[in-house]
């Protein structure tokens, strides 16, 4: 690996860190360290173009959080041990299992299937927030967690449409140790693209609010690069179209830059992207 390529990856890694993705404790300080991360050329190119284009915000955003409502203002957060009050939106079955899980972790008497029992009880997006909190405790306690557990977590969260929770988990690998597949990232792209369209068509969202939703699509892209998933034509299509469909100037600017990046990587533009670009140029 050349010194210039190493600088590209380091610069891209810093951009990912700024965009809300928590990096592990190990830091790449030498070319040899960087080689050990096995970043593919297409990932390196995407990271570099993303930095040069300023398609991502230049200021670090607030850490991802999912709004979680409780029936009383004094109710503790899901991460705490005091969980006597059931959060609004959660199901009784999931909350009961969550309490049992917390008690087992606190008393160090969990079994290998303690986490999976909770996963199977998740029925709402709010239940997904309980699962996120439980997974963080499970990881901190040093309990075993394999690929099957990760798959069950992601599939259940997607099933209940807890997309923000999925993004929060994937943005913090040290705390949750969940690794997505390409299909998971693509599903996240489609979900957030739909949210952008919904916000734009609602007629109630301000431009700032629409851009904040659009940021989620770009965070999903950062997650893909961070987990060594090479960008696909489908990812770029959702990323670019989300910007055009946002109906705001910032979205259009990002989409035009990102489309040039896609072409530079040798990935063909989808017909709908070509049509959107043509419309934007004549507008």
Instruction: Calculate the mean pLDDT score and round it.
Output: 80
**Major sheet characteristics:** none
Shape: elongated
Strand content: under 5%
Radius of gyration: 20 Å
Give the tally of structural domains. Answer: 2
In total, how many beta strands? Answer: 0
End-to-end Cα distance: 44 Å
SSE pattern: HHHHHHHHHHHHHH
How many DSSP H or I helices? 14
The oligomeric state is single chain
Helicity, in percent? 55-70%
Query: Uncertain runs with pLDDT below 50, 5 residues or more?
Result: 4-16, 23-39, 51-77
Structural class label: mainly alpha
Please specify the SSE layout and strand pairing.
Blueprint lengths: L2 H16 L12 H6 L4 H13 L38 H15 L7 H6 L5 H16 L6 H13 L3 H8 L2 H4 L5 H21 L4 H20 L6 H13 L3 H16 L6 H12 L1
Helix pairs in contact: 1-3, 3-13, 4-6, 10-11, 10-12, 11-12, 12-13, 12-14
Q: How would you characterize the overall build of this protein?
A:
- The protein is an all-alpha fold.
- It has two domains: 3-65 and 179-282, no CATH class; 92-161, no CATH class.
- The protein has 14 helices and no strands.
- The chain has helices spanning 3-18, 31-36, 41-53, 92-106, 114-119, 125-140, 147-159, 163-170, 173-176, 182-202, 207-226, 233-245, 249-264, 271-282.
- It is elongated.
- The N and C termini lie far apart (44 Å).
- Mean pLDDT is 80; it is low at 4-16, 23-39 and 51-77.
